[in-house]
Every structure is written in C-alpha cells, then in structure tokens.
C-alpha cells in the first residue's frame, strides 16, 4: 500500500486502537498523514496509549484519543464524528475464558452492532473495514477437509462452532454475520471484511493480549519441550495484515470478505524457525508429538479429545487468491515474523532473557 492511495482529507476512526493489529493500522495511517480518531476504553491510561502517542509525535498525521465501550450504545458518537472510514478491530481473542457469552460473544456481537449502528448515524462514513477471522469461515480443521477441493474460501461459513464448542470462533462468526446483515440493510457505507489466520509478528505495545503471544510463551517456557502437536493453522504477519486493512479502506475495488493468510503451517514448523537463533537458550519444541498422545493428555491441557481428533494431524488449507488479487500483498517469510516476534517478547519482558 502506498501513501498516494490514502486520502488524508478526512479523519478515520479505529476501534480498539491500543490492540495488537490496530496499533499497526494506526501507525500506517499516521505515517501516511491521516488524522486518526483512536477509540479506546480509557484515554487517560497513558501506559496503554503511550506507543500510539510516540508514533504520532514523529508522524505527519494527527492522533486524537476518545473514550468508548463496545457494550455501550452510542459511546462511539464523538470518535466517529466527521470520519470517512471506520476500522472496527476491537474484539477479544482469548481461548480459555470463564464465561464465553460475557467474555467473547457479547463484546464481539454487541460491539459490532453498536459500531455499525453508529456509522449509519454519521453521514460522513462511506466505508467500514471489519477485522473478522478465518474462524468465521471454519471451526475445525476437519471442516476444511470437507470444503470443496479441501480448501476454504470466502463463500463458506463456520457452522460447527457454538457457545460450548470453539466459543471464540462462534463469537467471530456471529459478529461478522451481524455486520453483513446491517450492511445490506443500508446504502450509505460499504463493508469490507478482512478474515486473517493466526496473526504473528512483533507488537508495538509492551504487553499485548492476543492469544498469539501465549503460544510463543508456551514454546519458550518448556511446556512443549517434549514436542508439539501437528495442529495445522494459517499464519500472517501483523504488519502485512495492517497493510491489507489499509488496502481494504482505500482501494475502490476492495469488497466483500477477504482471507488474508501467508503460510500454511503448524506448531512444529513455527517452532523450527526459532531454533537457529534461540534453540541453544530456550527449551523450544523440536519434534512432533504423536496424535494419540495428544489425544490422551488433552484433558490435562484443558482441551477436549474431540478437538484433538478434529484438528491435530489435519492441515490448514485456504484459497487466498481473492485478497492477493485485490490487494497485491507482499508477505514476509514465516521465519522473519516468528523471530521478530520472539525478539520483541524478550525485549519487553514477556519472555525471560537468557
């Protein structure tokens, strides 16, 4: 994405602006000279907004912080005033939660409805870019195996997840479906959806909360020293994903759903990219655990055996041609993303230095 494609004449709003993906989107916008209305839970919490303020201090764009709450109707009114584009990135990404409805579904679904309803109340808004996920397309790797040609694409929807089974995937599916229903009921703004796979790469803030960082912490801690499961997944660098969001916002031809994924990988392959640089200092996994063993110990790892059966040993396969054709994305190598992420986690104290 080049700066000349970015319209700097009108401000844009970013929800969850202190988040992992949102931070890189805000950085790209500020560096292009855009005025960014950053919607955050508490603008006075300088610890959480410091990285955004630091970027704004040297960028040609302008940063304005606004208080907003996903669950509070109308709370985005001030932040959205005068904005031409809305990036809705705010949605919790956690696997183990006490109350899936309150911790995942309500913020994702109600938040999406509140943000999009607010967009319809502001005549300046002409496009909404929603950060969804590939898990709104499939629930388990077994679903991918059943997809036409054994690959998921943008025409498919996750029909296997529920509040009690893959609740995170369920929350993303409900939120995206609601977004499309609202988009089709009006003609003021158009909706472009980004469906990324697992997001990896360095964070701009010191303490990101995305589940991606928990995976690397487990690898570094020795919890996977005996080995890791061959759990197929897609992966994309957060910096490349941010570029995809900017393309979705400013390219006229951007439309519909867009799978953004750079690599078809698994835990073992991801860990292997770290071994040349960190293998002598950290107990990283070096081999694949047999599926039967992962199935046997699943309850101790807070997983169901059905989840293991439907995911381990089964590959992630996705048709990414639509997003590639629309956005012309240049994707970083997996090793670059993983090593940059691991190094940043050591530097910020998320992984102990050794």
TrEMBL record:
Key word Oxidoreductase present: yes
Keyword RNA-binding: no
Superkingdom of origin: Bacteria
Coiled coil: none
TM ranges: none
GO MF entries: oxidoreductase activity, acting on the CH-OH group of donors, NAD or NADP as acceptor
Pfam families linked to this entry: Epimerase (PF01370)
SUPFAM superfamilies in alphabetical order: NAD(P)-binding Rossmann-fold domains
Keywords, comma-separated and alphabetical: Oxidoreductase
Domain (NAD-dependent epimerase/dehydratase) ranges: 12-254
Protein name: Short chain dehydrogenase
Organism: Pseudoruegeria aquimaris
């Amino acid at each position: 994405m080049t700066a000349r494609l970015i319209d700097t004449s009108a401000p844009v709003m970013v929800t969850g602006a202190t988040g992992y993906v949102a931070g890189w989107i805000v950085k790209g916008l500020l560096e292009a000279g855009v005025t960014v209305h950053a919607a955050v839970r508490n603008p006075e919490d300088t610890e959480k907004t410091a990285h955004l303020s630091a970027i704004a201090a040297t960028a040609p764009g302008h940063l304005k912080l606004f208080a907003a709450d996903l669950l509070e109707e109308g709370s985005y009114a001030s932040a959205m005033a005068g904005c031409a584009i809305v990036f809705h990135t705010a949605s919790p990404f956690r696997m183990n939660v006490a109350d899936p409805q309150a911790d995942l579904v309500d913020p994702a679904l109600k938040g999406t409805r509140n943000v999009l309803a607010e967009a319809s109340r502001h005549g300046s808004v002409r496009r909404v870019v929603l950060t969804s996920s590939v898990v709104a397309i499939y629930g388990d790797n077994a679903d991918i195996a059943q997809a036409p040609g054994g690959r998921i694409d943008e025409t498919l929807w996750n029909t296997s997840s529920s509040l009690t089974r893959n609740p995170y995937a369920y929350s993303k599916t409900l939120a995206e479906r609601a977004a499309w229903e609202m988009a089709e009921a009006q003609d003021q703004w158009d909706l472009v959806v980004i469906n990324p796979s697992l997001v990896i790469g360095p964070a701009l803030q010191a303490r990101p909360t995305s589940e991606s960082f928990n995976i690397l912490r487990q690898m570094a801690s020795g919890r996977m020293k005996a080995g890791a499961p061959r759990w197929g997944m897609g992966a994309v660098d957060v910096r490349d994903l941010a570029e995809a969001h900017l393309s979705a916002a400013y390219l006229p031809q951007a439309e519909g759903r867009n799978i953004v994924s750079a690599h078809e990988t698994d835990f073992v392959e991801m860990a292997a990219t770290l071994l040349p640089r960190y293998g002598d200092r950290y107990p990283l996994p070096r081999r694949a655990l047999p599926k039967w063993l992962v199935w046997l110990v699943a309850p101790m790892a807070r997983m169901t055996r059905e989840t293991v059966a439907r995911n381990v040993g089964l590959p992630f396969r996705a048709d990414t041609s639509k997003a590639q054709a629309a956005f012309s994305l240049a994707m970083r190598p997996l090793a670059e993303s993983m090593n940059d992420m691991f190094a940043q986690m050591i530097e910020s104290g998320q992984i102990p230095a050794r």
